[in-house]
Specification:
The complex is a heterodimer of chains A (938) and B (142).
Chain A lengths: L1 H8 L6 H33 L4 H25 L2 H19 L9 H27 L4 H33 L2 H21 L19 H12 L1 H31 L15 H32 L1 H4 L2 H15 L3 H26 L5 H29 L4 H32 L9 H7 L2 H17 L3 H12 L4 H12 L4 H12 L7 H13 L3 H13 L5 H4 L8 H13 L6 H20 L3 H11 L8 H7 L5 H14 L8 H10 L3 H14 L5 H7 L5 H14 L4 H9 L5 H14 L1 H32 L6 H24 L6 H8 L4 H14 L2 H11 L4 H12 L7 H9 L4 H13 L5 H14 L5 H11 L1
Helix pairs in contact in A: 2-5, 2-6, 2-7, 3-5, 3-14, 4-5, 4-7, 5-14, 6-10, 6-13, 9-13, 9-14, 9-15, 10-13, 12-13, 12-15, 15-38, 17-18, 18-20, 20-22, 21-22, 22-24, 24-25, 24-26, 25-26, 26-28, 27-28, 28-30, 29-30, 30-32, 32-34, 33-34, 34-35, 34-36, 35-36, 35-39, 35-40, 36-37, 36-42, 37-38, ...
Chain B lengths: L5 H9 L9 H10 L1 E5 L4 E3 L7 E7 L2 E4 L5 E5 L4 E2 L1 H6 L6 E4 L3 E7 H10 L2 H13 L8
Antiparallel strand pairs in B: 1-8, 2-7, 3-6, 3-8, 4-5, 4-7
Chain lengths: 938, 142
């Protein structure tokens, strides 16, 4: 029964209590406040007439703005439920205070105050209730649950109307005010009891820019900077305008229909016909709204998407006014009532509640308050003014407003996914961007500001490391003028050590041979007092082939390593080696000396030998350099890897298998990146698969490097990449990498293949989910916990793989960020990522994957999978373990083999032998090693 | 007080103990996602018992740390950072941080800090060094 009810309302198991409490709360306070809302306006008109309404509205607007300011400050310090409680307390206290004086003949101010405070309470209760609800729901929960809360809110309104109709004539207004106080007290205690018990979704309140006066300006700045928020507020204002205009128009139209003088209606029109007719319409529509909110809204959103639903209200109003301008029939008037009471009060309101979830993180909590207590009163005021001044042309105003609302909704529709994306980007750092990429991404003004700040730092900063950083960052602009007028003159202000450091920076730069650079460095040879700088400057020039061999020949046996290196490099590649025999002779000396350095026992000599090898053609040294990769010193290993990357070309292709094996063994990131750089330069297509397979446990930066080098290899890698993508026996991380490269090299081909692979993986995910759930439910044994964990991990890994494939196969550019967000432990971040995926992925595929990526309980996932894929064959324990032994995951294999051995299941010895043989085949010692340890212990 | 530009933020990070080893590419990436918040003198950045969401680096100004309450433990100046403990142990804030002057902070959210640590593990080592300096024996509890 419970399951049936849950399914009917779209509530997942575990969510029922929360949904019930919020729905009950919404009913209670809306019932209470709706009674006073109706009574206060009636009493105001009855006691002092409608002439005071404009003045009351002005006071109300000022009061609401003051309340919203207070609300925003409180929001920084207190959770929304405490603010909601505070407002409930204030409203209860207010109604208790005014109750004794309801019958007395106070002046106008009493009734104005009652109306004003009631209106303010309605607005702030709505805002604080929804802020409270928002804190406990992410965007995906909201799609299912907000319709229900809205429906119970309407139910409160309907019951309030019924109570007023039934009781006011019989018992007067006192008991009704008592009902209000009673329901508000109930709401208060209900909130106080249940709110602390249900876990909220944590939001970063320390980043709210609202603690001081100054920060209000930054708040409005944020508002101004978000096109989505601006269009949402604009849309909300227009909704207010169109609502008032339409209400006015249908009332005017109904007044004509029900006027006995003008009416063409054949039946008898009594004095109260209009009120009765409106009452009936409101009752039926409210009932419809309740049913729509409870049962249909969530399905509607799921089926056609929020982005499309928001276009319905403007289109409805557009169609309505287009017809209304031409014909004025009773049906159109009823249509107008429906448009306001159903489309705006139910559909539009629900949409707005969901759309707020896409507002920037810093604004989300406050936007509802700002809108309800600040912009809505402005909307009311504007629409009243509009109707006062343009009474005759109300239908044309409505038509124009419908057109403008359509544009505003289109803007919201366009900005909605972008806003979500920007929210996701807030917590996703892109480490793949270099300084040059950053500079390229700036606009002209930002680029200039960036440059000016760097120049300022270079000239004024006291911290030398920052000055060095500024100097080398300015080099990234590749600006001649900057080099000549700022960078080179500033060189003089650096110390000798810093100058040497900057020389190394310059060496790698296209400006290395710039005449002004060479002239500055040459001047150091003559004018500087520091021998170390002179030596380094000569070394720099030697690397460019600008030193004459005769000047350095004597240094070939120098004890000073830099001098010796300068001599070797000069002999090797001086531009002055004009005659061929002379050049050959010099190069032969250089070769012997370099070889001696590389074979040396001293680390400094080896490092210098490697430094020399990086210049000119040194491929002959490749075997020695490869040997140095295994040197005891990490510095030597790194330098050797760097040297290989500097000299690599196709001639090193024979060393590719060696390098791949080496990368598997070594864990140093710099070495791996240099090795990958080497592979990129070798451009060997025959080992693409091995490179990808080696990447199983590589770090993110290393995988990024593989992606970039294999992408550069182009379309010839496609068949290999496709074979990896389709092979379930290959580790998922390798398949993901292949998909990413394919996404760059052949995106259309990948998109055509992805569905097939994902469908298989969904079935695999279903397998893991089903058995993990069944093991936990049917075999609650301690010894099977590892198996359950392995199955859960398998499920996680499969969904991770699917997410990667989906993103790689979509048109989405920032895939890493989306994957990161989809795996976030923060429900709101994950929910927004799912929303983004829905925008960019094909709807058919998204519907299939949704149950797996959504944060729903296992039972729900399994039920949906069962309905899509049919029942899962129930494997017994030995069958399940045998299946896991076939997995590509080492973890699953290990757990399966360990359990098979431990439980002495049939065929356990054969399994060990098989795995042993497999490990030997694969040149691994993974699983059998673990098993033999286990057996030894036994 | 004026907020810092992207490159100024990156340079500021470079001046801190925690991020001094990182290269500029990475620092700019972090600076791009960092928030800047300006506080008034005597304004509380956070107080004991509050849920922790951010890690703070003082860009300009100074902050006093009070623990358990009203007992001044230390004064922090430009380039000092604080607030990482509760982010890492998920406990509420266990001290008060109050600005003594107009203070500009560079702040990182928990996911950002963890993201940076996973990309540059040397930051975790620096944090460990900082913690171990304050806890000569981790078996002694308060």
């Amino acid at each position: 029964m419970v399951r049936f009810i849950r399914k009917m309302f779209g509530i997942y198991s575990g969510e029922g209590k929360r949904a019930f409490h919020f729905a009950l709360l919404s009913f209670l306070w809306s019932l209470g406040i709706s009674i006073t809302e109706t009574l206060s306006i009636s009493l105001l008109v009855e006691k002092i007439g409608s002439s005071m309404i404009p003045l009351t509205n002005i006071f109300t607007s000022i009061g609401m703005i003051a309340f919203s300011a207070l609300f925003l400050v409180l929001l920084k310090k207190y959770p929304p439920y405490k603010i909601f409680l505070g407002i409930l307390f204030c409203s209860i206290a207010f109604y208790i205070a005014i109750l004794p004086f309801l019958g007395s003949s106070f002046g106008s101010w009493y009734w104005i105050l009652l109306q004003m405070m009631t209106y303010i309470f309605v607005a702030v209760l709505i805002a604080s209730y929804w802020s409270f609800v928002d804190e406990h729901h992410d965007l995906q929960d909201a799609k299912r649950a907000y319709g229900i809360y809205n429906a119970t809110y309407f139910l409160g309104n309907v019951v309030a109307g019924l109570l007023i109709n039934c009781l006011v004539g019989k018992v007067g207004i006192y008991p009704l005010f008592l009902i209000t106080i009673g329901t508000l007290i109930l709401s208060f205690f209900h909130t106080q009891i249940f709110a602390p018990r249900i876990g909220s979704i944590e939001e970063d309140k320390e980043s709210l820019p609202l603690s001081t006066r100054k920060k209000y300006s930054s708040f409005f700045q944020l508002l101004y900077q978000s096109p989505f928020v601006l269009s949402l507020i604009g849309m909300s204002l227009l909704v207010q305008l169109i609502r008032t205009t339409t209400e006015y128009s249908y009332l005017q139209s109904l007044a004509n229909f029900f006027n006995p003088t003008f009416s063409t209606v054949t039946h008898i029109i009594t004095e109260n016909s209009l009120a009765q007719f409106l009452g009936k319409c409101h009752a039926y529509i409210s009932l419809g709204n309740i049913l729509f909110g409870l049962f249909f809204y969530r399905k509607f959103v799921k089926r056609i998407g929020l982005g499309n639903i928001i276009m319905i209200p403007p289109l409805v109003f557009f169609g309505l006014y287009q017809q209304w301008i031409i014909y004025n029939s009773m049906w159109i008037t009823v249509g107008a009532i429906l448009a306001v009471e159903w489309i705006l009060f139910s559909l539009e309101d629900n949409n707005f509640n969901l759309l707020i979830g896409a507002a920037p993180n810093k604004l989300r909590g406050s936007l509802r308050i700002i809108n309800d207590s600040f912009f809505e009163p402005i909307g009311m005021l504007l629409s009243s003014l509009l109707l006062i001044f343009l009474q005759k042309g109300n239908l044309y105003i409505g038509f124009i407003l419908a057109i403008v609302l359509s544009f505003a909704s289109l803007m919201v529709r366009k900005n909605y996914p972008r806003s979500i994306l920007n929210n996701l980007r807030e917590n996703a750092i892109r480490f793949d961007r270099g300084l040059s990429d950053w500079i390229r991404s700036f606009g002209k003004k930002d680029k200039q500001n960036f440059k000016n700040t760097l120049i300022h730092c270079l000239e004024k900063e006291k911290n030398s490391s920052i000055r060095l950083l500024a100097w080398s960052s300015l080099l990234a602009f590749h600006d001649n003028h900057l080099l000549e007028n700022t960078l080179l003159p500033q060189l003089a202000s650096f110390s000798v050590t810093e100058k040497i450091q900057l020389l190394q920076e310059l060496e790698q730069h296209p400006f290395a041979q710039h005449p002004m650079v060479l002239s500055t460095i040459t001047s150091w040879l003559h004018y500087t007092q520091h021998p170390s700088l002179v030596t380094k400057a000569r070394f720099y020039l030697a690397k460019l082939g600008l030193i004459h061999p005769s000047k350095v020949k004597k240094d070939i046996h120098s004890q000073d390593l830099t001098k010796k290196a300068t001599a070797i490099i000069t002999l090797k590649q001086s531009l002055e080696n004009r005659s061929l025999p002379q050049a050959a002779h010099n190069q032969s000396i250089a070769f012997d000396e370099t070889d001696k350095l590389l074979q040396s026992d001293k680390i400094e000599e080896i490092l210098m030998g490697l430094e020399i090898t990086q210049k000119g053609s040194s491929q002959d040294f490749s075997p020695i350099i490869l040997e140095l990769l295994e040197h005891d010193s990490l510095i030597v290993q790194r330098k050797a890897a760097q040297t290989l990357s500097a000299i690599a070309d196709i001639s090193l292709a024979k060393f590719v298998p060696l390098l791949i094996n080496y990368m598997k063994k070594i864990s140093d990131q710099k070495i791996r990146l240099f090795c990958l750089e080497t592979l990129g330069k070798i451009k060997d297509l025959t080992h693409v698969k091995e490179v990808i397979l080696a990447s199983t446990h590589f770090r993110t930066a290393e995988k990024r490097k593989i992606k970039s080098i294999l992408t550069e290899l182009g379309s010839e890698t496609i068949p290999i990449l496709l074979s990896i993508l389709h092979d379930p026996e290959i580790h998922n991380s390798c398949r993901i990498l292949s998909s990413k490269i394919l996404g760059k090299v052949a995106p259309a081909l990948l998109r055509s293949q992805v569905t097939k692979v994902i469908e298989k993986e969904i079935a695999q995910g279903y397998f893991y989910a089903f058995h993990a759930f069944n093991i936990a439910k049917n075999y609650p044994l301690d010894s099977l916990i590892p198996l359950q964990k392995a199955l859960e991990t398998g499920y996680e890994s499969t969904t991770h793989f699917i997410i990667h494939l989906l993103v790689a196969g979509s048109t989405f550019e920032d895939s890493e960020m989306l994957v990161h967000s989809l795996r976030s432990t923060h429900p709101k971040v994950k929910a927004q990522a799912i929303e983004t995926l829905e925008t960019y992925c094909s709807p058919k595929l998204f519907r299939k994957i949704y149950p797996l990526i959504e944060d729903s309980p296992w039972e729900e996932k399994l039920e949906i999978c069962r309905s899509v894929y049919g029942p899962q064959p129930h494997l017994n324990l030995p069958e399940l373990l045998s299946r896991l032994l076939l997995s590509s995951s080492l973890f699953e294999k290990t757990i399966a083999l360990q359990l098979k051995t431990k439980l002495r299941l049939p065929g356990w010895q054969d399994s060990i032998i098989e795995e042993w043989e497999h490990d030997i085949d694969q040149n691994q010692e993974n699983i059998t090693h673990i098993i033999s340890e286990h057996l030894e212990k036994e | 007080m004026k907020e810092l530009s992207l490159i100024e933020t990156a340079f500021l990070l470079k001046k801190t103990d925690l991020f001094q080893e990182l290269d500029l590419d990475m620092l700019i990436s972090i600076a791009d996602k960092a928030h800047q918040d300006i506080y008034d003198p005597k304004e509380e950045v956070f107080i004991t018992g509050q849920k922790a969401y951010r890690f703070y680096i003082i860009a300009k100004g100074s902050v006093e740390i009070f623990y358990p309450s009203q007992i001044l433990i230390t004064s922090l100046k430009e380039h000092d950072c604080f607030g990482e403990e509760s982010l890492l142990n998920d406990d509420p804030r266990c001290y008060d941080a109050v600005c003594t002057t107009n203070t500009l902070f560079i702040t990182l959210s928990k996911p950002l800090l963890l993201n940076v640590i996973s990309e540059a593990p040397q930051i975790a080592i620096t944090l460990l060094e900082k913690f171990s300096k304050n806890y000569p024996c981790r078996f002694i509890k308060d």
